[in-house]
């Protein structure tokens, strides 16, 4: 006989009978009437050419063939429950997995502290791995499942990716606390003359806010272009005449170090969106859905995260 001749749903009935040793109780467990359960048992008997279960004073007891099949059926049902059915939903309280998120070092400073705080509360057995993926490789990385999400201002994100806005960020200018030439504000003349640090993941001075400076005709004196945000406050501290324009959230983190202070740029820069991106392959994946919802809830009222968690 071929496996297509066996209704695999009957294995659920077999498993229930093996544990309950009662047609009535087994029927109640799988949600069938007693008549439907008896009909299913008869189909199993026909397929395996054996009674499988016989009525005794101690209930429905398996035959020798029933016991032999029972070992295999139990293994199959256990594997289905643990490896197949469990994938239909994500249970954060008991799940054990590592979430991989692509973000810059700025993203790590902004996203990771509140995200880890939430994750350790609701999914205590899950861990996080942060990776920094070049812009041109983000789609392939997400498609391959090598990262669950990409977080940040991916303005040139491929059209094939899903995306969701988390919050808007504004830009401010960082200056050294030792820079006495700049007061509570920076003039356009000062901004254009002072050497600047520009952070660009591509290694070119092409940050998202460049176009805003161009619209005002502002010419920046770019001294250093770097792909790393974390080095910026240390360089400004070492060279007090250097300045840098960065997202406010990042500048606030750096300001707590006590080496830099924040001033508004000489022109009003438009805010830019921080988004999470994911690949259509994982759009309906329960774990990915849960992670996206957690991140959206965490940053929905950023920067008032503490209030949002209360």
Automatic annotation (TrEMBL):
Domain HTH lysR-type: 6-63
A Pfam family the protein falls into: LysR_substrate
CDD domains: PBP2_DntR_NahR_LinR_like
Keywords assigned by UniProt, alphabetized: DNA-binding, Transcription, Transcription regulation
Gene3D superfamilies found in the cross-reference section: Periplasmic binding protein-like II, Winged helix-like DNA-binding domain superfamily/Winged helix DNA-binding domain
Molecular function GO labels: DNA binding; DNA-binding transcription factor activity
InterPro entries: LysR-type_TF, LysR_HTH_N, LysR_subst-bd, WH-like_DNA-bd_sf, WH_DNA-bd_sf
PANTHER family, per database record: HTH-TYPE TRANSCRIPTIONAL REGULATOR LEUO-RELATED, TRANSCRIPTIONAL REGULATORY PROTEIN
Family, similarity comment: Belongs to the LysR transcriptional regulatory family.
Protein name as annotated: LysR family transcriptional regulator
Organism annotation: Paraburkholderia lacunae
